[in-house]
Amino acid sequence: MNVLGIETSCDETGVAIYAGDGGLLAHQLYSQVALHAEFGGVVPELASRDHLRKLVPLIRATLEQAQMGQEDIQGIAYTAGPGLAGALLAGASVARSLAWTWKLPVVGVHHMEGHLLAPMLEDHPPAFPFVALLVSGGHTMLVRVEGVGSYQLLGESLDDAAGEAFDKTAKLLELGYPGGPAIASLAEKGDPGRFRFPRPMVDRPGLDFSFSGLKTYTLTTMQKESAGLEGEALARLKADIARAFEDAVVDTLAIKCRRAMEQTGSGTLVLAGGVAANQRLRQRMDEEMGRLGARAYYPRLEFCTDNGAMIAHAGWQRLNAGEANRELAFHVNPRWSLMDLEPPAS
Question: Parallel, antiparallel, or unpaired for β 3-7 and 12-18?
């Protein structure tokens, strides 16, 4: 089954074709980062309009890349949530219109399930069951995964997600948008010994996260230490703060992941979501898993951020099992919980 996948949950327009045993046949991605950069974050109305502008050309480009026509597609998957309501509706309306016109089965995919299963796109994918850390701009959660649609929440952020904290910290350091890559780049120049920021909630039992206080600590440190500084001295301060902030987030995530592995007895950890592209985080997780005799799996860097390949793949899993919605009416779910999902009918 060749499945056309469409992703429009936020500010990336992604389209891909996935074919089961044939693997990923083609994928195209358009980023709206330049569009939103001047506003310091995503403007929902602009995102929705840009998705509508780019989707049809991207679908055509993806079919051409795969050397296929519409007659070669047997199913369509699209992101139905969570995400920005208008952006989700843009992708859903195009996907459902194509499915109706081409007389194909269609399924709405959970965005975070797409991320969670993204490492399955690699040549040596992890095997079920495993523990997954989903860490992005909108979510930070630890999940035990028994199979597709069989998820147990182990812990989640009680306030800001890690990626959101990266973006907000980058903004207060005047580094621009998106914040994660900007913080990581600047942190490479920072002195790891100048500041030590708190590791939130690691001294408490459990697997929940909290990054709001760390963001506030970063702000107060910047305000206190930057008085009277300018030029090179101010630039060094920002680099040192970026390094301290990144180290605190990475340590916190690593400690909680180690705790989750020990509690579940799992030997496999999957990292997915935009923050999973952070190289310091990957290095630390590899070290932690090595000490436990476990292994960490990641998507390739281009599939850490939002993309159509993960939606096509997750959609294939469900469409191939016979799950589909052929009704004309449809809806999106901006606040869809991953825990509401069930395994596909077999």
Answer: antiparallel
> Is 337 known as a binding-site position?
no
Place of tokens 């904290």: 165
Distance CA 161, CA 299 (A): 20
324 versus 268: which is more confidently predicted? 268
Residue 137 has a pLDDT of 87
3-state helix, strand, coil split of the chain in percent (to 5) is: 50, 20, 35
Question: Do residues 182 and 171 make contact, with C-beta atoms less than 8 angstroms apart?
Answer: no
CATH number for the segment(s) 127-298? 3.30.420.40
CB-based burial, 94-109: b 16+ in 10 Å, e otherwise? bbbebbeeeebbbbbb
Question: Would the annotation count 138 as a binding residue?
Answer: yes
Is residue 134 part of an annotated ligand binding site? yes
Is 157 marked within a binding site? no
306 marked as binding residue: yes
**Segment 102-127 mean pLDDT:** 96
- Determine whether the annotation assigns residue 3 to a binding site: no
136 has binding-site annotation: yes
pTM score, whole prediction: 0.95
**Cis amide leading into 192 (omega within 30):** no
pLDDT in tens, 270-288: 999 999 999 999 999 999 9
180 assigned to a ligand binding site: yes
Query: Of 117-126, 171-180, 299-308, where does mean pLDDT reach its minimum?
Result: 171-180
Structural class in CATH, domain 3-117+303-340: alpha beta
Structure confidence at residue 176 (pLDDT)? 84
Smallest Cα–Cα separation from 26: which of 57, 70, 56, 64? 64
Q: 137 among the known binding-site residues?
A: yes
331 marked as part of a ligand binding site: no
Question: Is 109 flagged in the annotation as binding?
Answer: no
Q: What percent of the chain has pLDDT over 70?
A: 100
Which residue type sits at 97? S
In the chain, where the domains are located: 3-117+303-340, 127-298
Stated as kind and residue range, the H or E segment containing 4 is strand 3-7
